Each structure stands twice: as C-alpha cells, then as structure tokens.
Amino acid sequence: MQCENCHKIIPDDSLHCPYCHVYFTKFKMDRNYPNQIILQLGNQIAFDLTKYETEIITIGRRDIKSNPDIDLGPYDESLTVSRLHGQFEWIENQLYYKDNSLNGSALNHKKLAHQQKYLLHHADELNMGNIKTRILFYDQ
Fold first, then answer.
1. pLDDT of residue 82
2. Which residues of 84-110 are buried (b: 16+ CB within 10 A; e: fewer)?
3. Which of 22, 26, 114, 135 has its CA 20 to 30 A from that of 46?
4. In whole angstroms, how far apart are CA 52 and each of 105, 107, 130?
C-alpha cells in the first residue's frame, strides 16, 4: 500500500510509515518502546517523536520553500500552520517546544511567546494554528 502522508510504498499490514513515522488506520501504541513520545492528531494519526534521530525536530507545512521533519500541511485545511511553524528540541533528555510561526501556538490553551522554549509533559495539548495535538509520553 501507499503511505497517506509521504506516498512511499510500505507493507500492506503496516500501522505506521517507517519513512515519515505517520500512524494511520487504527491507532495503536507500541507499549514496549522505552521513552516513546507521541504527537497525536485526533484518534488515528500520530507521529512518534522518539523515532527522529536529531535533537531538533521541525514541524510545519511542506512546500517548495520548506521541508519540515513533520508535515502538518495535509491536516491544515485553513492554512494556519506556517512553513516552519515550530520545533521540538531535546535538552538533557527532556522535550521542549518553541514556536517560530506567524499564527502562533498554544500550550494547554495558553498562547506561547514567540521563540521561547517550553517544557512538554504527558497529555499536554499543543495547538499550532488551528491544528490541535496532544503530547503523549509512555514508559518514562
């Protein structure tokens, strides 16, 4: 079958894409993966932030001028996500988020200051433009 996000060919029985790390169909967690951190969109689509091998993970809307690690473009019908909306950063084994956008981000319904890092916790709600996500930590 073909991944709904990056369009690469993947095995028919896959629950997530090994290339872009998007979960699809019925969302399931691999509870055996230590320190798994999931960015969840709705109940079915999610990105495993622990699968990226860099300290900084960019998030935004992919186009000719930008190529963020996580592309929210397919989920942003109203185009409120900036090309490079924000970034996740690992600092001393803790995950932080920094907003780099024009339309802003909110953490647990509080607007974030531009270019300031915020420590993330389990079940935090992180909104980027009109996209609502939840941060889920497992086996910490």
1. 94
2. bbbbbbbeeeebbbbbbbeebbebeee
3. 114
4. 22, 22, 24
In this prediction, residue 35 carries a pLDDT of 55
Distance CA 95, CA 37 (A): 9
Which pLDDT belongs to residue 28? 39
**Residue 26 contacts residue 19 (beta carbons within 8 Å):** no
Mean pLDDT by 10 residues, the chain (140 residues): 74 71 47 60 78 88 92 89 94 91 94 96 90 79
Contact by Cβ (8 Å): 108, 124 = yes
The predicted pLDDT at position 119 comes to: 94
Other beta carbons less than 10 A from residue 83's beta carbon: 18
Domains parsed from the chain with CATH numbers: 36-138 (2.60.200.20)
pTM > 0.90: yes or no: no
Q: Which amino acid is at 140?
A: Q
Task: Give the whole-angstrom CA distance, residue 48 versus residue 129.
Answer: 21
Phi, psi of 67 (to 5 degrees): -140, 75
